[in-house]
């Protein structure tokens, strides 16, 4: 896949205070990239740099082969962006906001506007002033505004902030559909790791203004997760199992094992069943994105 975002040796200072140091990464067309990092690590700053809202102190950025600083208007034509305030006009109704931004993007498609209002369950509220909307409603309208012109690249800064579980599902579903149907490249940052885990294909880990790690979940798992912690609901008698499977906890019918490789898991399950014990539930505990996040940050902090 061809790269659509190329970032090389970016530095950014605000009032001589360095915020980003030597940030480099590439995003390929059609990827859904999650930029992860603690508060203040520079995620929003990166999104603003990619859109040409602010200028880098040093380094090179290309978005669809355009320089965001001198060709930001080109980038904005093919991209959608959702940021904290969403840039909505509070004195205007929801639908008028969309008509206004639609015109700016050259999209005068009332059918599309109405369809998106339906999809994000805002159709009944479209005539109300945006100032009267709840946080979640503003967020959903902001997302419609960002995707109205069917962008090639979508930048989402904390897209699920302020949304209820239904709203979160709506947004994640839409991200997925856009990517699958149109091959939209999506660059998002979020703190809610278990939510973005279901949509992202690649991750960038940012810490103190530096990308400390990147890759697919499977690449990162292979690199960082050395042991697998698995919790099994079973009536197995531990002494009757191969001692290779280390038991770290037993709580009623829940036994937690530590395995050295993922290949050991089917063997362990097979052994339990062969010995005529039952298994009701199996849960791998340390292979989720959150575990990876802490593992990576821990390892990198030790290296410092
Ligand atoms: N316009 C600005 N002027 C001065 N400092 C700024 C400006 N914008 C951001 N910063 C500083 O840059 C650092 C990175 O901010 P940024 O908003 O990019 O972090 P973030 O990772 O998005 O944080 P959060 O998770 O809290 O949204 C912070 O210390 C912030 O205070």
Automatic annotation (TrEMBL):
Domain ABC transporter: 5-233
InterPro entries assigned: AAA+_ATPase, ABC_transporter-like_ATP-bd, ABC_transporter_ATP-binding, P-loop_NTPase
Keyword field: ATP-binding, Nucleotide-binding, Transport
Gene3D superfamilies: P-loop containing nucleotide triphosphate hydrolases
GO MF entry, a single one: ATP binding
Protein name: ABC transporter ATP-binding protein
Keyword Transport on entry: yes
Annotated source species: Robertmurraya beringensis
UniProt entry tagged with the keyword Protease: no
UniProt cross-references to PROSITE patterns, sorted A to Z: ABC_TRANSPORTER_2 (PS50893)
Family: Belongs to the ABC transporter superfamily.
